[in-house]
Amino acid sequence: MTHKNCIALISVDGDPAAEIGQEEAGGQNVYVRQVGYALAQQGWQVDMFTRYSSPQQAAIVQHSPNCRTIRLKAGPAEFIGRDDLFDYLPEFVTEFQNFQQIQGFQYPLIHTNYWLSSWVGMELKKHQPLVQVHTYHSLGAVKYNTIANIPAIANQRLAIEKACLETVDRVIATSPQEHEHMQTFVSTKGQIDVIPCGTDVERFGRVERSAARKALLIASDAKVVFYVGRFDPRKGIETLVRAIAKSKLRDQANFQLIIGGGCRPGGSDDLERKRIQNIVAELKLEDYTTFPGRLDDAVMPLYYAAADVCVVPSHYEPFGLVAIEAMASKTPVVASNVGGLQFTVVPEVTGLLVTPKDEVGFATAIDRILTNPTWRDQLGEAGRQRVEIAFSWESVAYRLNLLYTHLLAQSSATSESQTQAAA
Ligand code: UDP
Fold first, then answer.
1. pTM of the model
2. Closest Cα to atom 21, ligand 1: which residue?
3. DSSP string, 184-233
């Protein structure tokens, strides 16, 4: 038995109910939670499945009447890095099947997130009729070209990403750039739709720069450069810090570099944060630089609004939620000219794009915006408009809603004609 309106979002490694902004909890978690929430408002019963990463966690978190996070057992209830999770996935599949059995129905559609969950979806599909939609969030074939240490799981990941693209009912690329990467580096086969990530246009952009600075105790005439995100070498924070050392404005009074984002004590992000702090010290930038730690939902809109410029210096970025959150907050973005950032940031209109790792390029771009507040405001307004038109969660969920409806109708038509043929 299936329940027509019930769908499952599967995100084994990215818990949608987790605190965002530290080791491995970033854009994917936000995407699953916000898409789930918005789809529930559009009439779906949404169950979002993840794994326990601590024994204290609740089995079920109810986000809204029709949207909940459900945690299943997959390995020990502790943090396990993505590269070490694969062996626990068969247990997750069994737990999911048991959950369906207890509920007395099978989900007719699942939307899987990241390659680990794509494997879960493909396994489930061997045992029950279902439509599988998949969002990668990151492609091994692209990521591995940008990092020094390739993990042992790499070959398995690449093979699964290829099988997924070639066989699932629909893959979502979150930008035209990701679409092209899939076809160039993964496989020319596959059914791909481009549906971007989104952001909360009500939450961001409601507070003016002056009020935000007052709330954060930042001087009204300060020059504020802001980064927020996980401490991961591929985020390129080192490039930003070295660019600030080259900025012509950094010796001005009230120059501030704010590097937001949390980390798990002893985790890999802790190591990266310490490395960045050492570079800040080595370049004698300590007087201008602050590390406020993880920024929660309440303060995040204030930081974006308070900044003159938000910098996203990633070496690889499949989408990059931070860029559209800043744009929604009317703050221009200086970003690396890679991946989804080439789609979200319109150069000279909503911000500037710079070659990744180009410290002088970043310094020049940041200085151009800091020295021209009128242009900063124009870029900010244009960014806000772009996000309202293209990147609200409602519009993203609406497009997913149409896609799910279409795929479910197609699959029931196929199974009806198979039943008739067999009769
Ligand atoms: N984030 C947050 N608090 C922090 C750091 C990050 O809430 O201290 C959020 C940020 O607002 C964004 C997400 O984490 O929504 C990061 O997503 P992005 O796509 O930029 O990067 P990812 O983590 O997926 O690499």
1. 0.93
2. 27
3. III-S-S-EEE----B-TTTSS-S-HHHHHHHHT--TT-EEEEEES---G
